[in-house]
Design brief:
With 161 residues, the protein is an all-alpha fold. It has helices at 7-22, 30-40, 43-51, 56-73, 84-99, 107-116, 121-128, 133-145, 152-159. It contains nine helices and no strands.
Length: 161
């Protein structure tokens, strides 16, 4: 789907599509990506959310409320498979990986991008759950400075090593 995504990221994108189907929605949005990171349960993105007390149940509760209120305000018709927010987030995640000098896009890059996509369900959900882009980036930077291999074995699988 996108260049330089790790197997974990491919799995997260597939999970986001499954979650969208569970919600009986005909598009994949940022809310589905956020829930997919938590559902996958692996990677730095999931660890950061868990470290801040954000569980699948909490995130789903916030997402459900936001979706319900947005559906009351708008009539959704003829959306593309990926919303504009979804496409923006994927492009931003790729850029975040470049800025952090990563050869692959991982869940932590996706999480930063989700938290920065103003007005998206994921961004509003993360804000309501008490986690900001600055907090996420600071935790990633701290892990990098301590020598953590952020993408870990997932990146090794991607590069064939």
């Amino acid at each position: 789907m996108f260049e330089k995504l790790t197997p974990r990221m491919d799995r997260i994108i597939r999970l986001s599509q499954e979650i969208a189907r569970e919600y009986e929605q005909d598009y994949v949005g940022t809310e589905h990506l956020l829930l997919a990171i938590l559902s996958d349960g692996t990677g730095v993105g999931s660890a950061i959310l868990n470290n801040h007390g954000i569980t699948m149940a909490k995130a789903k509760r916030v997402v459900d409320e936001l979706i319900r209120s947005r559906m009351e305000d708008t009539w959704v018709f003829g959306r593309l498979p990926g919303t504009p927010h979804f496409r923006n987030v994927m492009a931003s995640a790729i850029e975040e990986a470049r800025q952090l000098e990563s050869k692959v896009v991982c869940s932590e890059h996706l999480l930063i991008a989700l938290s920065r996509e103003k007005g998206s369900v994921a961004q509003v959900s993360l804000a309501e759950l008490g986690i900001s882009p600055g907090t996420i980036r600071a935790e990633i930077t701290k892990r990098l400075e301590s020598g953590d291999d952020l993408c870990g074995a997932d990146a090794d699988a991607e590069s064939g090593g």
